[in-house]
Amino acid sequence: MSDYVRFIETINNLLVNFDIQHAPNLHFVVYQYPALSIFKAIMTMFCDINNNCFGDNELRNFLLNKEATEF
Fold first, then answer.
1. How far is CA 71 from CA 7, 13, 20, 44, 50, in A?
2. Separation of alpha carbons 31 and 63, rounded Å
3. pLDDT (tens digit per residue) in 16-69
4. Which of 23, 49, 53, 57 is deepest in the core (most CB within 10 A)?
């Protein structure tokens, strides 16, 4: 299971189990999630719907290279 899927499932579980009638604001802290891989997954989805996005070689390298850390 990818880091992104685990992250989204965790957020979904929080929202499903949250009683919004008694507390309209939800605050939570996420620990031990690899933020970079989640960010790359989200950016890849944006690039997938924007046809010209992957024309940028630096962006392509950042998203496709697991070792790349500079955006």
1. 21, 30, 36, 13, 18
2. 23
3. 887 767 777 777 788 888 999 999 999 988 888 887 776 788 888 999 898 999
4. 53
Distance, in Å, from the CA atom of 40 to the CA atom of 51, rounded to the nearest integer, reads 17
Q: Exposed, middle or buried, 29 (CB in 10 Å: 0-12/13-18/19+)?
A: exposed
Confidence (pLDDT) at 11: 86
* CB-based contact 3:34 (threshold 8 Å): yes
Backbone angles phi, psi at 30, to 5 degrees: -110, 125
Three-state SS sequence of the chain: CCHHHHHHHHHHHHHHHCCCCCCCCCCCCCCCCCHHHHHHHHHHHHHHHCCCHHHCHHHHHHHHCCCCCCC
